[in-house]
Automatic annotation (TrEMBL):
Residues 47-239 form the DUF58 domain. It comes from candidate division LCP-89 bacterium B3_LCP. InterPro entries: DUF58, vWFA_dom_sf. This is DUF58 domain-containing protein. Pfam families: DUF58 (PF01882). Transmembrane segments: none annotated. PANTHER family: BLL2464 PROTEIN, DUF58 DOMAIN-CONTAINING PROTEIN.
Amino acid sequence: MPQAQLLKPQELARLSNLQLLARRVVEGFITGLHQSPYHGFSVEFAEHRPYLPGDSIRNIDWKVYARTDRFVIKRFEEETNLKGYILLDSSASMAFGSGSLSKLQYGIQLTAALSHLMIEQRDAVGLAIFDQKIKRLLPPRSVRSYLSQIFSELVNLEPSGKTGIAETLHRVAERMQRRGLVILISDLLDEPEEIISGLRHFRYDGHEVIVLQVIDPLERSFAFPRDARFRDLETDERIISQPWHLKDAYQKEMKGFLDELKSGCRENRVDYALFDTSQPFDFALMEYLNKRKRLY
């Protein structure tokens, strides 16, 4: 996928609308993050903002109130910029695609769009590409030139290796010294209990966590029209079967798998969304951000 195709001109144009939604999402997260006693000695005053219901009165600048009769909040440097990681699964199972895009290509476009949104609003974004282990780790930065480095990692990315989501989650959690945002983009074809354990590690440390599960429509429907030969993309094991005989049982198992992931995320206050590769990624992302915006 050439770099120029990561985000097409019409998609970049639509990202201007996503930008407004993303800003609301991030600002809502930051407001909630700082309602608790969080500031340490390292924070520095950055600017004022209007007082909002729910803000702690201890952050009101009373000197400004005395001069202007307006309530404003002291905003600190740690409040003005969010640090986040996007964790992109590039294991072999992400190679599957029944349409124009594989799951990995879809995930790459989501990663590119989210990186663009975060850096455009001056938030710092880092990137972790992984399979069983972390293949590439870029620390969070907020300068626009950093997008080129992120995109260069995405351009020639090929799926390979077995899936090991939990280990990556734990390793990244151990590196994050400051509370921030973590976005996991994966098909999540791994053990749900282990995935939830890794996500719980982030939540225990106070991070905001978003899980974007990328699934091909055939992986949900199993609607293959004839006898099919299936190959495990991670082990190369092959079997021949008659899908229509297995369809009902498969769909039941898949629904149970998805429900287990969704309920595990909900119980641990992890935001979960399912992305179908048959839906254009930018419209899917806008729908998700619209839904998330209503939470704040």
